[in-house]
Amino acid sequence: MKNYKIAVLAGDGIGPEITQEALKVLKVIEQRNDVSFELMPALFGACAYFATGDAFPQQTKDICDQADAILKGPIGLSHEESKQIPVDKQPERGALLPMRRRYNTYANFRPVSLPKSLAHFSPLKPEIIGEGIDLIMVRELVGGLYFGEKERGINDKGLRYVRETLEYDEEQIRRIMHQAFKLAGKRRKLLHNIHKSNVLMSSVLWNEVMEEVAKEYPDVQVVNCLVDSAATALCLNPTQFDVMVMENMFGDILSDQGGGILGSLGLMPSACIGPDKAYYEPSHGSAPDIAGKNIANPYSMIGSVAMMLENSFDMEAEAKNVWAAMQGVFADGYSTADLSKPGSGVSMISTVEFGDKVVEKLLKMPKV
Ligand code: IPM
Ligand code: MG
């Protein structure tokens, strides 16, 4: 029997509630397969800061170091509450970016997927959604503005100023391109390269390297697309996209737009892959306004489990079953209150009930 160690970082806000549902799904995977998971819970985010003075404490680092994969819930506080924590210790700067840096998780996969049967969640018209949206954004996650040098001070005119740098070397660009081309090769063999080379020198180098790497993947068609125009195209014609590759900041913004065209960021799981370690997390924040109400949909967290099964444990078929189970619950007409308004024709269920229904469906799926 295979045994995997999973660090479980439930995080802040709705994190613990949706993590609980994801863990139920992992239990079912154990029942159905010759596999066992050793869960190693650890504090991460604002909860860790309040308990230890550090949003990513050493003990959590040790647990993550030992783990075969990391399942991470959303972290962070409301804008007002974050003021209790010094800026450099806040969960995003004090935990999330250090996690990305520690494990060099340079490749971030963010599926934007909406089967036709779930089209009612989307603000887009049915004729735009057509047979459904199924694209995946590949975001470079450890370079660019996020990790460049930063400086703040008073300039010689006596004015406060700030300088942040956007830096990439060709190797950083090459490795994310390989990831994107490989993925495109397994899908529709279509890669949209997102850039801003009419303004940014970083995009000029990005595109140069992209053209070099493209030679190794002659069967993948590349379409170059300016990032601003991609934002419009995602609304007007999202089904033209299959795999999109982009640098860190563009990926942060466009992937939230991806959530927007689906109808909610709650439908956005993600995988963050490094050379030796991967972690899996929803693309959204901790939604403190709805925390503890048992109304948050666990789709993004359970979807992150599916991505973990596929990428870290080679369990692609079970991963597909998890997606199908979740989509099946929606297709049966159920939803949670964070995703659907009363009167929208769906039967409203709680976070826990959604998890239970996913488990029920999964148990009925043919074993692989
Ligand atoms: C994301 C988030 C993070 C980011 C924040 C929480 C630092 O928005 O994963 O997209 O900007 O990368
Ligand atoms: Mg973001």
TrEMBL record:
Look up keyword Metal-binding and say if it applies: yes
Example GO CC term: the record gives: cytosol
Identify the cofactor(s): Mn(2+); Mg(2+)
* Pathway stated in the Swiss-Prot or TrEMBL entry: Amino-acid biosynthesis; L-leucine biosynthesis; L-leucine from 3-methyl-2-oxobutanoate: step 3/4
Could you tell me which residue ranges the Isopropylmalate dehydrogenase-like domain spans?
Answer: 5-358
Give the matching InterPro entries.
Answer: IsoCit/isopropylmalate_DH_CS, IsoPropMal-DH-like_dom, Isopropylmalate_DH
Q: Does the keyword RNA-binding apply?
A: no
Could you give a GO molecular-function term held by this entry? magnesium ion binding
EC annotation from Swiss-Prot or TrEMBL:
1.1.1.85
Gene3D superfamilies given in the database record = Isopropylmalate Dehydrogenase
Q: Which Pfam families match?
A: Iso_dh
Catalytic activity reads: (2R,3S)-3-isopropylmalate + NAD(+) = 4-methyl-2-oxopentanoate + CO2 + NADH
- Its EC top class is oxidoreductase
Role description: Catalyzes the oxidation of 3-carboxy-2-hydroxy-4-methylpentanoate (3-isopropylmalate) to 3-carboxy-4-methyl-2-oxopentanoate. The product decarboxylates to 4-methyl-2 oxopentanoate.
Q: Which family does it belong to?
A: Belongs to the isocitrate and isopropylmalate dehydrogenases family. LeuB type 1 subfamily.
Q: What PANTHER family does this protein's entry cite?
A: 3-ISOPROPYLMALATE DEHYDROGENASE
The subunit structure is: Homodimer.
What protein is this chain from? Answer: 3-isopropylmalate dehydrogenase
- Taxonomic placement: Bacteria, Pseudomonadati, Pseudomonadota, Gammaproteobacteria, Methylococcales
